[in-house]
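Entry 14. Ran structure prediction on the chain below.
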Amino acid sequence: MTSPSFPIEKSDAEWQKKLTPEQYYVTRQQGTERAFSGAYWDHAEPGAYECVCCGHKLFEAADKFDAGCGWPSFTQAVDEETVEIREDHSHGMRRTEVVCSRCGAHLGHVFTDGPAPTGLRFCINSASLSFDPTDSESDEAAPEPDQTDE
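Output, structure tokens:
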């Protein structure tokens, strides 16, 4: 079976050079970090979560919630095109895998036991994410344009 094509493709050696061993294991080998061990499971700061492999913006901090599962959990992705959803039958289970739509990185899984309004719980490995605190909606009003009468 041919693997799907993504806009960003690299060799295993290139990914291994770019990523830590844990990031490589999780994102390129469909691994899972231990619950409550990742950097973002209890992280609560305004900003955005991006793919550690390619920098693609995936989730907003405003959509993050504490699911009590030990992994960062979100009610939705930034938009429908940000992630790709696939059936996952590994480890004798039936789950729905979430991958980055830009580079194919394994992010985690999505479940239908999340809170309203979506009812979804995107359960994502911290090792698959980086965090950008500057990529959030600012509480400050935009400066007024110069309104001079000439």
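Helices lie at 12-18, 21-28. Will compare against last week's run tomorrow.
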